[in-house]
């Protein structure tokens, strides 16, 4: 696997990593197919509204504090900026920062633009973004419309770079190109790698911490300080200057394997910054693995071991208590693949039996050519777990949950837990990426699950009064009858 | 529409999927990219008064999730498959296919697909709502027109007193449910039978749609959205329409509204005046009681700005000037009003009590609006009625801010209404709660 920084557009996950959005089987079969490169995607002959690359790319980049985004699209494609702005305020609150609005301009493409093109409009919007926000970099995101009509965005930005003295980076994230919205993160990081990151001048004690909102910021700063390291939270809430120096860092770590794969491996391959490719830091086993991985590449093994010992001692009695409370309960997990496979393990650590794992896509390999460690670990366990892959197809999931009737549904991504709750299943939404982060995080998360199980009145009341939008016919079918072999 | 715009305050035509969701037991089927539904619902629903998925919204909306294959080879077959399976899986009574940019550019024959299902007696209609065609308010009109043309059947008789109500755009207005209920209540007080399509309840939705052709009158309460629809209804079913261009908020405008509707529908003058008198008495009971605080604290804002769609910019201005005695700074209208309607809306802003007028700016570019407001020299703390985007600006200019217009991501809206007498009371409560909590 090689990350090519000489091209302006990174290949989508389906083509680059062989990633899929349609699968049903078990974790052992999935891992076996991944490692033997025999995993085949399946399509669905019914589908519900999913998500696209541009949402991920725009949302992620718009929270860089001194960059601007120009969304080259009809106005609906910039609708997600409303959510991004709310999200941005959440991260500002975590940091006690004054609120600002995110710097996003939309080119407002209209019918005549689809006929005559809109590069002139795009140029003016980029100039205006520079005037309004005085940014240190401008990212231009593409759309289905700009892609289909063939707008030459790279040339436009090359021309503009003569008059605007900051990096102008195209971000190719047309929604129709990939079924895997995480391809949008890769597009964003490709723009950062090719246009923002500079070759290293010196090596520092910094650690690139790839994440979203950084709610555990204080804890991570304190933990890394014990190892003589200092985190740079990437990419939201960082500055363009900080991002440009990622090549100088001592290591890259990520809260999410899906998110971190491209940038982490890219920095390693091109600038020799080691990328920690262990389990993600959810729960005890995950945190052990993640910290040891970091210790190994930074030569801080002893400090890490001492820290791990201390932290485990701190939570020992709480862990016994929460395990007792949760023992014997069952759960279904529905999340992106990295969170999903890491959370299955984490929930098991609390004594809960995971009876199904649904992930929104699956990467049989990351950009280093290896199967995700979290998947391999689950596959190596004695008990096999039934799993499925689907781009958040609620009809499939709801049919499944209705059949399995778990005690708990634990999900990440909006628009999922509400439906399980309507079935009467207490549900927990993991909105914050640092839920269940490490040792204390596991305990806190355990209590959150326990609270959800203790008072089920909302789920009970809703389910007895609210009608689901599915026919009785559908609820009686096998959950996966609409999953069919891909027609190439 | 603006050349470019910052701070989304409306979305694209496909946002009309939310209007379909506002019809009980109707479901949109998107023939669009995988991200369209999520983005549009996120902005108009989730981030706008916390209006959630409801019965079949959010990630449950059927969608073809158009990919590269459909862009290259066309998406008709995929659409047929998704519509066919939607009919099996989703428990609904009306299916509305809505196209996105991709299928409109590629040139899929969506009409043909819909007609095939219609021929089999299936309740499937369609509208071409490719995002590049316009705003979601325009898209809302396209959806209503599609219903008129493809779903409604002519009636044999006219039902006297039956009044169809067309007004705020569902979901774009986070208070639409409450607002429509309030309008319904006002019309009912006149002794008429209001027929409201959007909103919860078995008497709304398809049952209400079924009654549309036999109404005595279509009442459109809107500066411009929906005018084409009521004209279309007149052409098709000979139903006359009354265009009332101001969202009635507060006693002055609501009395005018009741008189206008009552006169047009043939309600006895005595009855109209009785309704007005009763409501005004109740309204002024509360205002009289709160007058001490409104007048005797040093905090009463004197000047206000609206940064809102034309419904609220106009409705709130009328109320704050004509009833509460505030003065207007510039008023910004953000819903992409086309030129043909701008003059009549501007004229309304030149017609307040005591000869007061307000300058109006039509612009959907929030960044440009904020730049403009920063140049205003305020002599006191202004009241800014806008959206969540304006909280940052309000801090900069030391204003009081209340989000009323999309996106209202900083508030939870359930059945609150800002219309009529009750709605005006809610608005006064909300404004002064902000003023009072600001220093405490």
UniProtKB/TrEMBL annotation, chain A:
Keywords: Nitrogen fixation. Belongs to the NifD/NifK/NifE/NifN family. The keyword Heme does not apply. Residues 52-453 form the Nitrogenase/oxidoreductase component domain. GO terms for molecular function: nitrogenase activity. It comes from Pelosinus fermentans B4. PANTHER family: NITROGENASE IRON-MOLYBDENUM COFACTOR BIOSYNTHESIS PROTEIN NIFE. InterPro entries: Nase/OxRdtase_comp1 (IPR000510), Nase_comp1_CS (IPR000318), NifE-like (IPR049939). Pfam families: Oxidored_nitro. This is Oxidoreductase/nitrogenase component 1. It comes from the Bacteria.
Automatic annotation (TrEMBL), chain B:
One of its GO terms (molecular function) is oxidoreductase activity. It holds the Pfam family Oxidored_nitro. Residues 14-435 form the Nitrogenase/oxidoreductase component domain. It comes from the Bacteria. PANTHER family: NITROGENASE IRON-MOLYBDENUM COFACTOR BIOSYNTHESIS PROTEIN NIFE. This is Oxidoreductase/nitrogenase component 1. It comes from Pelosinus fermentans B4. The lineage of its organism: Bacteria, Bacillati, Bacillota, Negativicutes, Selenomonadales.
């Amino acid at each position: 696997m090689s990350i090519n920084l000489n091209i302006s557009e990174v290949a989508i996950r389906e083509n680059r990593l062989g990633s899929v959005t349609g699968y049903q089987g078990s974790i052992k079969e999935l891992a076996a197919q991944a490692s033997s490169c025999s995993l085949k995607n399946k399509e669905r002959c019914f589908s519900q509204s999913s998500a696209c690359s541009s949402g991920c790319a725009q949302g992620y980049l718009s929270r860089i504090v001194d960059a601007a985004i120009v969304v080259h699209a009809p106005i609906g494609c910039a609708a997600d900026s409303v959510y991004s702005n709310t999200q941005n305020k959440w991260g500002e609150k975590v940091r006690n920062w004054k609120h600002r609005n995110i710097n996003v301009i939309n080119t407002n493409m209209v019918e005549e633009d689809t006929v005559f093109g809109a590069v002139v409009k795009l140029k003016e919007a980029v100039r205006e973004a520079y005037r309004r926000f005085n940014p240190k970099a401008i990212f231009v995101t593409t759309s289905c419309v700009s892609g289909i009509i063939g707008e030459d965005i790279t040339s436009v930005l090359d021309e503009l770079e003569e008059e605007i003295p900051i990096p102008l980076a195209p971000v190719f994230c047309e929604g129709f190109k990939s079924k895997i919205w995480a391809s949008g993160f890769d597009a964003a990081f490709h723009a950062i790698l090719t246009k923002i990151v500079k070759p290293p001048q010196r090596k520092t004690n910094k650690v690139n911490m790839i994440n979203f909102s950084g709610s555990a910021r204080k804890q991570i700063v304190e933990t890394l300080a014990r190892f003589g390291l200092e985190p740079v939270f990437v990419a939201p809430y960082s500055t363009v200057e900080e991002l440009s120096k990622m090549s100088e860092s001592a290591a890259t770590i990520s809260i999410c394997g899906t998110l971190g794969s491209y940038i982490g491996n890219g920095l390693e391959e091109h600038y020799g910054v080691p990328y920690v490719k262990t389990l993600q830091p959810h729960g005890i086993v995950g945190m052990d693995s993640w910290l040891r991985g970091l210790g190994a590449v930074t030569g801080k093994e002893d400090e890490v071991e001492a820290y791990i010992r201390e932290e485990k001692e701190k939570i020992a009695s709480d862990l016994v208590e929460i395990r007792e409370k949760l023992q014997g309960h069952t759960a279904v997990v529905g999340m992106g693949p990295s969170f999903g496979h890491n959370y299955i393990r984490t929930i098991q650590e609390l004594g809960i039996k995971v009876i199904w794992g649904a992930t929104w896509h699956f990467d049989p390999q990351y950009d280093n050519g290896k199967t995700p460690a979290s998947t391999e670990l689950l596959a190596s366990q004695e008990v096999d777990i039934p799993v499925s892959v689907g781009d958040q197809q609620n009809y499939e999931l709801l049919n499944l949950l209705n059949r399995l009737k778990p005690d708990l549904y634990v999900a990440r991504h909006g628009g999922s837990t509400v439906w399980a709750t309507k079935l009467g299943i207490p549900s927990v939404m993991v909105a914050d990426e640092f839920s269940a982060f490490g040792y204390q995080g596991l305990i806190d998360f355990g209590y959150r699950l326990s609270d959800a199980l203790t008072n089920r009145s909302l789920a009970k009341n809703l389910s007895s009064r609210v009608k689901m939008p599915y026919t009785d016919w559908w609820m009686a079918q096998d959950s996966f009858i609409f999953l069919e072999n891909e027609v190439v | 529409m603006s050349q470019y715009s910052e701070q989304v305050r409306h979305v694209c035509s496909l946002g009309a999927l939310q209007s379909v969701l506002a019809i009980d037991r109707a479901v949109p089927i998107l023939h669009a990219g995988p991200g369209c539904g999520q983005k549009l619902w996120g902005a108009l629903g989730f981030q706008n008064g916390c209006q959630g998925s409801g019965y079949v919204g959010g990630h449950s909306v059927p969608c073809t999730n158009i990919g590269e294959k459909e862009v290259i080879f066309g998406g008709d077959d995929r659409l047929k498959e998704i519509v066919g399976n939607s009919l099996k899986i989703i428990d609904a009574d009306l299916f509305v296919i809505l196209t996105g940019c991709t299928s409109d550019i590629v040139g899929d024959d969506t009409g043909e697909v819909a007609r095939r299902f219609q021929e089999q007696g299936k309740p499937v209609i369609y509208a071409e709502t490719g995002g590049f065609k316009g705003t979601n308010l325009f898209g809302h009109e396209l959806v209503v027109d599609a219903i008129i043309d493809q779903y409604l059947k002519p009636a044999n008789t006219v039902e006297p007193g039956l009044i169809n109500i067309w007004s705020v755009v569902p979901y774009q207005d986070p208070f639409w449910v409450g607002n429509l209920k309030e309008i319904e209540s006002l019309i009912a007080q006149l002794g008429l039978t209001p027929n409201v399509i959007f909103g919860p309840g078995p008497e709304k939705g398809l049952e209400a749609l079924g009654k549309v052709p036999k109404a005595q009158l279509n009442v459109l309460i809107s500066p411009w959205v929906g005018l084409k629809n009521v004209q279309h209804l007149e052409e098709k079913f000979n139903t006359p329409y009354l265009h009332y261009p101001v969202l009635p908020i507060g006693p002055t405008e609501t009395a005018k509204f009741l008189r206008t509707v009552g006169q047009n529908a043939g309600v006895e003058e005595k009855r109209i005046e009785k309704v007005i008198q009763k409501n005004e008495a109740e309204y002024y009971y509360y205002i009289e009681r709160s007058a001490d605080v409104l007048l005797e604290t040093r905090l009463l804002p004197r000047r206000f700005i609206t940064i809102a769609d034309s419904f609220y910019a106009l409705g709130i201005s009328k109320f704050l000037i004509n009833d509460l005695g505030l003065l207007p700074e510039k008023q910004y209208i953000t819903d992409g009003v086309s030129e043909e309607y701008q003059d009549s809306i501007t004229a309304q802003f030149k017609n307040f009590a005591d000869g007061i007028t307000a300058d109006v700016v039509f612009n959907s570019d929030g960044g440009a609006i904020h730049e403009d407001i920063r140049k205003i020299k305020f002599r006191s703390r202004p009241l800014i009625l806008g959206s969540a985007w304006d909280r940052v600006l309000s801090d900069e200019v030391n204003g009081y801010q209340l989000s009323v217009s999309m996106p209202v991501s900083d508030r939870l809206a359930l059945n609150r209404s800002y219309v009529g007498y009750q709605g005006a009371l809610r608005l006064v409560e909300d404004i002064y709660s902000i003023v009072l909590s600001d220093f405490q």
